[in-house]
Description:
Blueprint: H1 6-16, H2 23-31, H3 35-50, E1 53-57, E2 59-62, H4 91-99, E3 108-111, H5 121-134, E4 139-142, H6 145-155, H7 159-169, E5 173-174, H8 184-190, H9 197-209, E6 213-220, H10 226-243, E7 246-253, H11 269-282, E8 288-289, H12 293-296, H13 298-304, E9 311-314, H14 321-324, H15 335-344, E10 348-351, E11 359-362, E12 365-368
Parallel strand pairs: 1-9, 1-10, 2-3, 3-4, 5-6, 6-7, 7-8
Antiparallel strand pairs: 11-12
Helix pairs in contact: 2-10, 3-11, 4-5, 5-7, 6-7, 6-9, 9-10, 11-13
Residues 74-77, 144, 175-178, 180, 215, 217, 219, 250, 252, 254-255, 259, 292, 313, 321, 325 line the site of ligand V47.
Amino acid sequence: xxxxxxxxxxxxxxxxxxxxxxxxxxxxxxxxxxxxxxxxxxxxxxxxxxxxxxxxxxxxxxxxxxxxxxxxxxxxxxxxxxxxxxxxxxxxxxxxxxxxxxxxxxxxxxxxxxxxxxxxxxxxxxxxxxxxxxxxxxxxxxxxxxxxxxxxxxxxxxxxxxxxxxxxxxxxxxxxxxxxxxxxxxxxxxxxxxxxxxxxxxxxxxxxxxxxxxxxxxxxxxxxxxxxxxxxxxxxxxxxxxxxxxxxxxxxxxxxxxxxxxxxxxxxxxxxxxxxxxxxxxxxxxxxxxxxxxxxxxxxxxxxxxxxxxxxxxxxxxxxxxxxxxxxxxxxxxxxxxxxxxxxxxxxxxxxxxxxxxxxxxxxxxxxxx
Length: 370
Ligand code: V47
């Protein structure tokens, strides 16, 4: 395939020669009017890495509290501690919630919440221990780098010490949230009380050094520039060169409803698809690119499987962060729904566990093939 856009043609030649894309290439990919061309290149990389497979998992999200001291302008989920609409689960409620929907034999609990000023690190450790006791075979993917930073501040420990304690209590890996966009200028406006971009990277580095895998994300479609996005991707890529600890990158489209940034228009299908494709091309060392269906809609997440993505996330069961911010997607897809979406995109569905080992199900039972 020859490209009319000369910058894309040059990028194609670099990829053919096995050369790494740089900052200028990233900006050119964002600016190219030829989305199909960008997608063609990304799909080629995706198929070289994963053939025809699209990964999914059977998971459940648990958000123990929406109380948050941070008040990020990007967020519609966090509430002040005295807000009558705020909630905080008791440990028993967390454990009970985890069991709901368990008939689909979830392999992962995805656990994130607000920065609660009263819950202690011991409380979180107890929560993890209780989950492991009740659901020993379920992987606990818990706490963003931002939560780790806050636990450290509150408990007067280092972030490394916090990670060690949580790991001992049963945390198996970390999700990718809270990264937003690393630019200080952007963070001052959308999430000024959160850890800095450098701190986020440092916590991720420490987690990886302790043998914990994590995911990574980028929140786009608010006040950031294309240059900010490329810079963010390159900072993730640089850390991955060092640690190889990231499993999956998930681009997250900003949902403005019920946030102080409600005036910002929603992202478009074209933009969402481009984000997947650019990520696949720039993040040559991160194995997977996830099209998070709750955020993208099932339809766009399906199309993304031909534009660079090889993962569609999981069953989720109950989602709050995006639904508080206006998402109109379902909150719960069954395993069969995910199979259908993937097959109709012409891909071969592979159920995975959190570490991307294939899961084989025999009727209602399941085993992880190592
Ligand atoms: O950390 C918050 C973002 C993240 C809004 O690791 C918002 O597998 C858009 O990180 N509009 C949480 N985004 C979601 C997340 C995630 C999701 C699925 C899978 C994984 C994974 C991680 O959502 C937050 C923040 O960056 N967010 N509010 C909003 N209004």
